[in-house]
């Protein structure tokens, strides 16, 4: 039996079915609920609450906040400023998924087995102590390997890295879901085109629609690279994806939709 924070869970179930007859549902060879788009913000910075939350609330879409649990309610946490537990719980009540980003953000590939286990299990427990349902982990710096993935599978239903790919739907490997960076830590596209333009982001949405896939964007709203221009791109990409019939969901919402098919 998985632990659930009732209200947020109910809201997420509703959000997964958001948009009763999206254009995408009429796309051939696209089984519901795809194509999907998930927004994941890393590191639990205060900007998740002050900057991202207002925009997404206005757009009516959820996100996933990946939290470094050692830095919550900890005055000695390194910069940037982090959300406190009350703010994290407020996002959860608003329909956001709260994910683990490990306890201390060390690169998991470099840890011994005991420490790796403690980072993965401990961070989930700390979030559960706040009353949160936690089924997703985001690998720090997107670093993983088969050993890390196997450890993640023992404690989570899904794990995310940053390989720049649009995921298939249903996903082939839920412990190695790929994300595309938006606003910060961007990478050039396959043909060398800049990875931080509005056209690039829209092309990833088009790819998700064409492939009936699952696009997951990785965000760092505290980063200087995620400036006002990039923030406005985020808003425009959300509108564009809605216009193309893409459904917004959290990671657990997507996997839950998969289980209930
Ligand atoms: Zn991180």
Tell me what the structure shows:
This protein has a single domain (about 30-260), classed as Glycoside hydrolase/deacetylase (TIM Barrel), CATH 3.20.20. The chain contains eight helices and eight strands, in the order αβαβαβαβαββαβαβα. It has helices spanning about 5-15, 45-60, 85-95, 115-130, 145-155, 200-210, 230-245, 250-260, and strands spanning about 35-40, 65, 95-100, 135-140, 160, 180, 215-220, 245-250. Strands 1, 2, 3, 6, 7 and 8 form a six-stranded parallel β-sheet that branches. Strands 4-5 form a two-stranded parallel sheet. α1 packs across α8 (about 250-260), α4 runs parallel beside α5 and α6 (about 200-210) packs parallel to α7 (about 230-245). Helices cover about 40% and strands about 10% of the residues. The chain is an alpha/beta fold and about 260 residues long. The chain binds zinc ion (ZN). Zinc ion binds near residues 101, 105 and 140. Keywords: Signal. Its main location: secreted. This is Peptidoglycan/xylan/chitin deacetylase (PgdA/CDA1 family). One of its GO terms (molecular function) is hydrolase activity, acting on carbon-nitrogen (but not peptide) bonds. One of its GO terms (cellular component) is extracellular region.
């Amino acid at each position: 039996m998985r632990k659930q924070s009732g209200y947020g869970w109910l809201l997420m179930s509703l959000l997964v079915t958001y948009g009763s007859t999206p254009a995408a549902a009429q796309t051939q060879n696209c089984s519901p609920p795809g194509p999907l788009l998930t927004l994941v913000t890393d590191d639990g910075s205060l900007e998740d609450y002050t900057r991202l939350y207002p925009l997404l609330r206005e757009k009516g879409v959820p996100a996933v906040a990946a939290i470094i649990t050692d830095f919550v309610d900890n005055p000695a946490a390194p910069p940037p400023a982090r959300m406190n537990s009350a703010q994290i719980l407020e996002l959860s009540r608003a329909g956001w998924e709260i994910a683990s980003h490990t306890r201390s953000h060390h690169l998991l590939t470099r840890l011994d087995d005991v420490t790796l286990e403690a980072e993965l299990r401990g961070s989930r427990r700390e979030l559960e102590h706040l009353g949160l349902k936690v089924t997703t982990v985001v690998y720090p710096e997107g670093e993983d390997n088969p050993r890390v993935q196997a450890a993640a599978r023992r404690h989570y239903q899904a794990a995310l890295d940053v390989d720049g790919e649009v995921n298939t739907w249903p996903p082939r490997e839920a412990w190695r879901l790929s994300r595309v960076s938006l606003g910060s830590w961007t990478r050039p596209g396959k043909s060398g085109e800049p990875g931080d333009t509005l056209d690039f982001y829209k092309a990833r949405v088009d790819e998700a629609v064409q492939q009936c896939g699952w696009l997951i964007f990785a965000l760092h709203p505290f980063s200087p690279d995620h400036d006002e221009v990039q923030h406005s791109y985020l808003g425009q990409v959300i509108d564009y994806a809605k216009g193309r019939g893409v459904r917004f969901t959290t990671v657990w919402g997507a996997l839950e939709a998969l289980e209930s098919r």
